[in-house]
Amino acid sequence: MKKTITTAVAVFALGATLAFAGPHGDWKGGRGHKEGAFSEKMAEKLNLSDAQKEQVKAIEKQFRADNAAFFENAKATREQFRAAKEANDQAKLDSLKPTMEAQRAQMKQLRQTVMDKIRNILTADQRAQLDAFKAQHESRRDQK
What distance in Å separates the CA atoms of residue 135 and residue 115, rounded to the nearest whole number? Predict the structure, then answer.
């Protein structure tokens, strides 16, 4: 059951994070997704009240503001890594790997913190639904 909860939280957090960390402005996504569509879809599935939706938006907005510098730094690291990979610069790749691993770990921790805040505004039934969605997602992922 605990694994299920963790997976649902991670799925929701990942969707929220991708919505924040992705390009902003007029770009609406290259795969037919609307900006923030995952969050809206999850809010609909969990039947969040308007007040809960506003609380989630506030949490997400604060998350983006608090971590803007980290996101920019991580983006720069990914771009450097991509350039080194295209140039076949193994020394640069090796030097960037620890930084990327640390950034991934930090992002995972940041997503978990956001999900903990979001879980705190959910009812017991909504948390159970979220856990079920997470378990379902994990089982599909394990089958691949």
Answer: 16
pTM: 0.66
Encode pLDDT of 40-91 as tens digits: 888 889 999 999 999 999 999 999 999 999 999 999 999 999 999 999 999 9
Q: Which residues contact 103 (CB under 8 A, 6 or more apart)?
A: 70, 73, 74, 77
CA angle 54, 59, 31 (to 5 degrees): 85
> Which two tokens mark 17?
């994070």
Kindly give the interhelix angle for 68-86 and 50-66, rounded to the nearest 10 degrees: 60
Q: Tell me, letter by letter, the H, E, C secondary structure of 6-55.
A: HHHHHHHHHHHHHHHHCCCCCCCCCCCCCCCHHHHHHHHHHCCCHHHHHH
Could you give the C-alpha distances from 3 to 14, 21, 40, in angstroms and in order? 16, 26, 24
Contacts of 39 (CB under 8 A, 6+ apart): 12, 15, 16, 19, 56, 60
Are 139 and 10 in contact, with CB atoms under 8 Å apart? no
Tokens for 40, please give them. Answer: 């809206």
